[in-house]
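User: Is it possible to get a 3D structure for a protein together with its bound compound? The compound here is BIS(adenosine)-5'-pentaphosphate. I've pasted both below.
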Amino acid sequence: MKLILLGAPGAGKGTQAEVICEHLQIPAISTGNMIREALKNGTEMGLKAKSYMESGALVPDDVVIGIIKERLAKEDCQKGFILDGFPRTVPQAEALDAMGVEIDKVIDIEVADEKIEQRLSGRRVCEKCGASYHVDFKPSKVSGVCDKCGGATVVRKDDEPATVRDRLKTYHAQTEPLKEYYAKTGKLVIVEGQEEVADTTRLTLAAVEG
Ligand code: AP5
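Assistant: Yes, that's possible. Here is the predicted structure of the complex:
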């Protein structure tokens, strides 16, 4: 199955991508994680993306389209995949179509802007493996320590409140039009993000299987 997860920053795309990945045994591909990894490794692409990412803006289309093209050509994507955070603009969606990728479903996780700030201010990510937690909603077993690899969990740079507000503006201006783009294809399914992660998961899995 080939899925796209749409939604505002902090709507829960990454959290749900992880669950679907385990459920369907297909890779979850997050352009955000791939860019952060490139930044950590000091690659040319990572350095190019740094200022955009840290200010809450989108990385230029040609850079992310290049990353996705390369990733989708890999063997593990042949049976399907979950795209988390791509496409994020209409030109990115058009590029995906031009690659001949037939998407089965586009799941849009909807969460009101007011709740996003609370979610992102409580998010902690592992410096080492990137695993994601929330101090209230999904705490690690030992505070500040990753359950998976024992690395330190920290606040993401772009989760500062002012940057989150800029990311939301970017989302409404550039990514939200994708809802209409995919509604026209009949593949869009809307999931109302819930207070509890488990409730959103139940609705998301029902949308995947429905
Ligand atoms: P990216 O890493 O993709 O960030 P994002 O889309 O802003 O999404 P987030 O990772 O912040 O949130 P999420 O929806 O995955 O939520 P999560 O599950 O973690 O992108 C970062 C940057 O990279 C972009 O700003 C841009 O610069 C660049 N970039 C990436 N892709 C690009 C592209 N295609 N084009 C151009 N630029 C691109 O959940 C958030 C928190 O809430 C967690 O702590 C979680 O535990 C908690 N939570 C989740 N669900 C619930 C729930 N139901 N109830 C309570 N808490 C919950």
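The first strand starts at residue 2 and ends at 7. The mean pLDDT is 95.
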